[in-house]
Design brief:
InterPro entries: GPI_mannosylTrfase (IPR005599). The protein has about 525 residues and is α/β, with parallel strands linked by helices. The chain folds into 2 domains: about 375 residues, no CATH class; about 150 residues, no CATH class. About 55% of the residues lie in helices and about 5% in strands.
Amino acid sequence: MWRRTYLFLLLVRLWFALSPSYLHPDENFQGPEVIAGQIFSYPVRHTWEFTGENPIRSVFPLWPVYGLPMLLLRWLWIGNGNDGEIPPIAVFWTLRVLMFVLSFVLEDWAIHELVHSPRHRRVAVMLVASSYVTWTYQTHTFSNAIETLVVAWSLVLIQRIVEDTHQQSSLMASTVLGIIGVFGIFNRITFPAFLLIPGIRLIPHFLHRPSSFAVMALAGLITAFIAVALDTAFYLSEPVTLTDLFLRPIITPLNNLRYNILPENLAEHGLHPWYQHLLINIPQLLGPAAILLITKPHLSLRLYSAISGIFVLSIFQHQEARFLLPTVPLILSSVQLPRNRKAMQIWTVVWVIFNAALGILMGTYHQGGIVPGQVFMSNQPDATQAFWWKTYSPPVWLLNGKNEVLTTHDVMGMPGEKLLEQLADLATCDTPADRRKKEYLKEKQGTYLMAPASATWIDPYLPNKGLDGLRFREVWRYQQHLNLDDLDWGEDGVWNTLARVVGRRGLVAWRVTKSCDGGKQR
């Protein structure tokens, strides 16, 4: 029975991996978009992490995770005789499937390795496989999702090193640990926080077998040198020499640490109380499993790893729930289910409802129209201006070369009056073709507004059919889109806010025109 259930949960995971929800802009701008610009001719937009004087993001972990699959895909595309570039949406879905495979193979495999008891292992695997975090965050291209896998396999390697009595096997595990340890640090500087307590187990082993520590350190140093070389070559405008690597290296983890220890820098991203992770983010990720963490914990190296990670991350004042992704499989594999049958049934029902609700919300509806919206914009022959209002930043690399003629305006928080001013400046003149079905596509220029249907501020301007002012023609709508950043509990109240955001869900594209003297464009 449990095998059939596990197979069903794998299909659920795959279904969510192939759903176009958009959990956070970082899943594009800190990963695939950076490498896509290196391999393909897609237009890309580098965020501040990559453009500052002291860049804080490394491209080293991006190459094996995203670069190699893109290179393979490009090789297959050319090998099959195709001309031009691969459609970026094909690359997007390939990476989603890759993240599903990595989650399915590496995360679940690590749980099998870390949990020794067959009965407890079965429960742990099922809990991880049925978590909405596994369905959604782990199948998206987050550095946090990669960190989850690196933490889990670091624990596996530590366990193998400590328990293995064969010198050769121990040396191999130590070498791999040195490599992925450096990889983890360049991926996210928070990675060592999860190994503070588990790493203590290695001290007696290294004292007894110093050769294991030597090979781990050597592997780590070689990996770090390669990482610094790649980052330096990426960020310096001129060709890099060996002298550059020693005199002016770009060490992104060091820059990242320097940036994040300054409260004034973190204030730009939002400050949280020290208990944000413990009292808000953990329950948000675990739901009813958070109760088991308090009432029925199973003390293990995995739990100690999660505790050390939560403790260190709570020191920093900027605390997002996704920062704790590595703790989810560690905690879910370190709790015990209720033994009382009735309590077990109640807990199971609550667990299923919690994950089904959060899975549908985060895996299907959360900003779900942005990726389909970019695909729509890439296919509009007349589009030259696109305004994205009250949405996450759209990934421009999905425009499939349309950026040569299309300018994307990311105006998420712009006041409505200012938006209308900018639309009035860039809108094309209303012509007879604009009033006929699909005839507007033959125009040479066109201005579009992409905004959630829940943005009621713009409602009074939509019905305008007169001679003056802007005219909005709805040309596309994607229903599975929710904008959770547009909640206004204080002004609208709870019920009215939910009625607006949920009842009027969807992302809409309007083609915007204006009246001009004589019908001529300016």
